[in-house]
Amino acid sequence: MLLIGPIGFLTPWLLAALAALPALWLILRAMPPSPRLVRFPGTRLLLGLRDPHPVARHTPWWLLLLRVLAVAALILGFAGPVWKPAPDQGGQGPLLIVMDAGWAAAPDWPQRQARALRALERAAAAGQPAALLVADGREDGALAFQPAPDLAAQLRALRPASWETRYPPDPAAALAGAPAGLSALWLSDGLDHPGRAEWLAALSARAALTVVPPEGPRQSLELAAGDQPALRLRSTGAAASDVLAIGRDPQGMPRELARLKPGEGAQDRGVTSWPVPIDLPSELRNRITRFEVEGQASAGAVLLADDSLRRRKVALVGDDRAGEGQRLLSPLHYLRRALAPSTDLIEGGMGDVLQAAPDVIVLADQIGLADTPGLREWVEQGGLLIRFAGPRMAASERLAEEPLLPVRLRAGGRDIGGALAWGEPRGVAEFAADGPFAGLAVPADVAVRAQLLAEPAPDLGDRVIARLSDGTPLVTRAALGQGQLVLFHTTANAEWSNLAISGLFVEMLDRLVRSARVSAETPEADPAEQPFWLPELVLDGFGRAAEPGDPVPVAAADFARGPAPAAPAGLYRGGERMVALNAGGPMAPADWPGIRIERAAEAPGLDLRGWLVALAALLLALDALGSAWLARGRRGAMA
Amino acid sequence: MRPAPDQLRAEAEGASAGLPALMLSAERLAAALVAGAHGQRRAGLGEDFWQYRPATAGDTARSIDWRRSARTDAQYVRDREAQVAQSAVIWVSAAAGMEYSGGADRPAKRDRADLLALSLAMALLAAGERVALAGQPPRPGRVQAERMAQALVARAPLPGDEDAPPAEALRPGQRIVLFDDFLGDPQPVLDYLARAAGLGVQGVLMQVLDPDEEGFPWRGAVLFRSGSGALRHDTRDAAGLRMAYLARLAERREALSRAGRSAGWHFGTHDTTAPPSQALLWLWSVLEG
Questions:
Q1: What pLDDT digit, counting tens, does each position of A112-127 carry?
Q2: Hey, what domains does chain B have and what are their CATH numbers?
Q3: Is B183 close to A42, i.e. CB distance below 8 A?
Q4: DSSP A369
Q5: In chain B, what residues touch A31 (CB-CB under 8 Å)?
Q6: Local confidence band at A143 (pLDDT 50, 70, 90 cut-offs)
Q7: Which residues in chain A touch residue B231, judged by CB atoms under 8 angstroms apart?
Q8: How far is residue A160's CA from residue A435's CA, in Å, rounded to a whole number?
Q9: Which residues of B touch A57 (CB under 8 A)?
Q10: Could you tell me the pTM of the whole model?
C-alpha cells in the first residue's frame, strides 16, 4: 500500500497512468469539435470561399478539463484509494488466520475474505510464512505453514459451510508445528461454538491474537415446536427482520408468497428471539418451499419446508345429529378433538367437502355414502379415505357389496367380552416395524369389545396395518389409484372400544394424516427407523439451494445430529417422506475476555473508490451535456 | 408564428401614424389612363369641380349644367379637374431565407418587410392613392389595406431560396416597391429592373437584412445552410470568412444600386433592429421626390 498524506492506494502502480493525462489533453485538444449547424440566408454569398486559416478550432478548454478530470478520477478510483487506512496491527511474525466458516460467517463473507487477504498480503510483503485454519469441521491434524502468497488462492476459493462453525478438537496437536513469534488473526462469526474456549486459550498463550468480530447481527430461523406451525427467529441484534415465505405460485413460478411479521421478542443472554406465527391459509402454506430471513444471506436464516409443515385439510363426514347431552356419543366428537390441533377441519355433506378438495376424508360409520359421485375419482387422484366401522355398518345387509373398503367385510360384527360372549376384550398387538404405526407405544389398557371382521383373502395379511392381540385386523389399508383407503374395524367413539379415548388414537390418526398425498406403495417409517436419507436439495453457506451433484446417503444416526460436514443442510428423502435438515438453531454470542478486538470502524479506512467512479460518471454526464449544448444548432436546423 | 391580419394591421397603423399624407410625385401623369386623386389644375376627367365654361359645339346636352345656365342666357358646362391614375405596387419576397431571424429579440425579416409594406400601403391609401400587392389590381380606400394585410399574412413561405417579383405584372404608370433581402440569385432582379426601365416604371428596392447577415458574428467550425437547405457551406474557421463575406455583401449592394440608378430606381437598406419608421420616412421621401 502506498501512502500519500491521509490517502493510501491499494494498487499504486495504476497511478502511473496519470502520466498519460498530458498526452490525452493534447489529443483531445486536436480533435475538431463537431461543427455547429447554422441556418443562414446569405449562404449563397459564401459559396466558393476558402478558409483563410484551415486549422481546427479547439475544443473549449472547460470541456477538455471535464474530460481530463473524468479520466483522472477513474484512474485514481481504480488505484484503490482509502482515506486514512488503518495501519496494520500485530507483530511481524508468521501469521495464522483462523476463519470461522459456518453459516453464521456467510452474510459478510466477502469482507472477511478481504480482511484475511489483506493480512496475507502483509505477511507476504514481510516474507513470513502463513497458515490458514478453516473452521468448518473438515480440517484436522497439524497446521501447515507455507509461504503466504500460496495461501491466497485457497483463501479466495473458500466458501462458508451450511453447518455450524467447528474447530478441530485438539488445539495443541494442531499448533504443534507452529513457529515461534506467531501472530494470529481470528475472523470470528460472532457466535460461541464448541471448542472455542480451548482454542482461545491455546492461541492467546502462543501468539499475538487479534479478533475481528462480524459487522452485523447474526440471525437464525428454526421451526418452533407446537400444534400450530410457527417459526422462531433469533438474532444477536435487537431488531427483527421480516421472514419471507417463498414457494411456487399457481403458475409454478417461485416467488415470495407471504411476508411474516415477528411477534414479541424476548431477550436471553445476548440473543433475542421472536416467535413468527405462520398464519396463512393452508392452500398457501402447502405451497411454501422455504422461509428465509429478509436480507440475511446465510444457511442459518433459511428454513426449508418439509412434510412436517404441511397442514392437511381433513374433511369429516358423519351423522352428527346427536343432541347436546349426547355429544360424547358422537364419533365425530372424538375425531374432531383428535384432529383439530394439527389439521384444518372441514365438515359437511359429502358433496360439499369434495368441493373443498381436502387431503383426507374421514367417514364415521357411513354406509351408502361411498357411492357419492366423485369420491372414487378423488381417492384415485391421491386422496386418503379413512372410514370407521360402527353399528350402522354392522347392521347393513349389503355390507359385502359396499365399495371403497380396503377389504371385503363379513356381514354382522363380532362381539368380544360382552355379556353374551365368551372371550375377554382384546388389546392391540404391537405394531409391525415396517408399518405406518411403527414405533408407537401401545397402552396396556386399550381394549376392543366389538369389531367388523374381514373376509379371508390371500392378500388380507398385506393389507392389515394394525391387529388385535388375537391377530384379527383392527386397521386395514389398501391402495386405490394414487390414493389410499383405510378402515378402522371399530368405532370412532367409545361404543365398541376405548381406543378413541386413548392417546394412541391421536397418534395413529396423526401418522395416517401425515401420509396423505404420499404415494401409498410403501408404508412410511419414522425418521429414526429410516436407515439412510438421500439429499434432494443441498444448501450452501449462503442459503442458496442446489441439487447435489453426487447425493451421498446419510445414515439416520448422523442425520439426527443435525447439519454436519457429512450431512449438509438441505432437503432429504427417505422412503416417501421428505425431511428438511435446517441449519438454524439456538445461538450464543461469543465473548473475548482480554483479547485485542479489531473494530470495524478502525479497520479498513474509508474506501474512496465508489465516490471517485461516481464523480467520473458525473463529469462525463456534464461533458455530454456540454457537447449537446455546443451542437444545439444542429437541432435548431433540423426543426 | 405569423401574426394575425388584425394584429399586423394595428402595428402598421401605428408605424404609419406619424407620416403626413404621402403624395406620389406625378411625373408620368400624361401617360395615366385612369383618373387618380392627383389634381392636374386643368379641366379633364375627375371628380372635383374645376370651372364653368360656356358650352361649345360638341358638348352634349347631358353635360350642360342647367342650374348655372338658368341664371343667364348662355349655356354652361361644368368642368371637372383632370385627375390621373397613379398607383403603387408593393411586393414582398416570400423566399425561405426571409423567415430568418438571428435572435429572439428581433423579428424575422419577412415580418419586418410585411410591416413596412403595409404601413407604406396605409399611408398611401390615406393619401388617396391606389395600392396593391404585385399581381393584383390597385384599388383605393381603407378596405384595400384590410385586403392587403390578409394577403400578406396568408402567403405561405416558399420552399426554395428564390423568389422574384412578377415581371409580367408590370404596368406603365405604377410605382413599384420591392422588399427583399436580395441575397438570392441577383439575375431575376436585374432582369426585372431592365424591363421596368423599358416600361418607364420607377420604384424602390428595399433590402431588409438581419444584423447577423450584416455583421457575420460566427466563429469556429460552422456548417452554413441556406434557408431551404439547398445550399451548404462548411467551414472550420467562420471568423476568417467574415471579411470576404462582407466584401461580397457590399459588392452585391453596389451592383443592385448601380442597376437601380440606371433604371431610375432607388436602393435602400433596412436593418431589422432599426425602428421601422426610419425606413418608412426614407421610402416616403423617395416616393415623394
A1: 888 888 888 878 877 7
A2: 5-30+85-288 (3.40.50), 36-83 (no CATH)
A3: yes
A4: G
A5: none
A6: confident
A7: 43-44, 47
A8: 40
A9: 219-221, 236-237
A10: 0.43
**Amino acid identity for residue A639 in this structure:** A
Test mutation, A46, A53, A59, chain B, max B CBs within 10 A: A46
* Cell (9 digits) for B232: 451548404
Cα gap A457→A461, rounded to integer Å: 8
Q: What angle do CA B161, B166, B171 make, to 5 degrees?
A: 160
Residue B221 touches chain A, beta carbons under 8 Å: yes
The pLDDT value recorded for residue A545 is 82
Query: What domains lie within chain A, and their CATH numbers?
Result: 2-39+57-85+612-638 (no CATH), 95-217+589-603 (3.40.50.410), 219-309+526-581 (no CATH), 313-514 (3.40.50.880)
CB pairs under 8 A between A and B: 109
| Predicted confidence (pLDDT) at residue A525 exceeds the cutoff of 60 | no
- Low-confidence stretches of chain B (pLDDT < 70) are 1-3, 14-47, 82-85, 289
Nearest to A474 by CA among A421, A425, A419, A528: A425
Report d(CA B42, CA B56) in Å as an integer: 17
pLDDT at A522: 33
Instruction: Give the Cα separation of A337 and A506 in Å (integer).
Output: 9
Q: d(Cα A33, Cα A61) in Å, to the nearest integer? A: 12
What pLDDT, on a 0 to 100 scale, did the predictor assign at position A636?
Answer: 42
> Given an 8 Å threshold on Cβ–Cβ distance, is A52 in contact with B241?
yes
pLDDT tens digits, one per residue of A394-418: 888 777 778 888 888 887 777 776 6
Say if B184 is an interface residue toward chain A (CB within 8 Å). yes
Q: What is the pLDDT of residue A524?
A: 39
